Fold this sequence. Notes:
Shape: globular
Largest sheet: 7 strands, mixed
Strand order of the largest sheet: 4-3-2-1-5-6-7
Structural class: alpha/beta
Helix content: 25-40%
Strand content: 5-15%
Low-confidence stretches: none
Radius of gyration: 19 Å
Number of strands: 7
Order of helices and strands: EHHEHEHEHEEEHHH
CATH architecture: Alpha-Beta Barrel
Number of domains: 1
Mean pLDDT: 92
Amino acid sequence: MERFERLDAVAAPIAATNVNTDQIIPARFLRKPRSGGLAPYLFHDLRFDDQGRERPDFVLNRPQYREAKIIVANRNFACGSSREYAVLALLHFGIRAVIAPSFGDIFFNNCFENGVLPVVMNEAACGALRTTLEAKPGVHVIVDLGAELVTDPDQMTHAFTVDPFRKHCLREGINELDFTLGYREKIATFEARQDARPWLR
Length: 201
């Protein structure tokens, strides 16, 4: 998993509320391999028409936002069914951070396990930031995990908070499993001690 420290990148606004995981990646693509090839299916039915042609009005199809690595969304982003592929599709497309007033709980947790930072900011701040991004397509937003600050294109800063353990893991580029495996020697030592205590089995 790639480390996350500070991201200075193009941000794309998505104003719709309650964007669900089936919109992020439709269920029919969930049999595709996980190994880096999910980008074409991100927002598939919003990005493409029935003939597979790009819809020019969809934000990620507009030239100024094609290289976006940050999405500024609306409330309850990625609600609906549980699917890790929703995070993976964003990641494979190049998205490393999503800023929104609120998230679907399972999606929120899956983000940390895959190297995507979900940033919770209040609704007014998110709305103002989306308005700026729509007025100035292609401008950059800075997401600084260490400082827990978002800097908008007008150089205004917005604080956010991240659980310290999750912050540590993102900065190290590890998920919970990787963190646990970092203690494999201590775990092996503990298990060896148990072998000498058969009455505990």
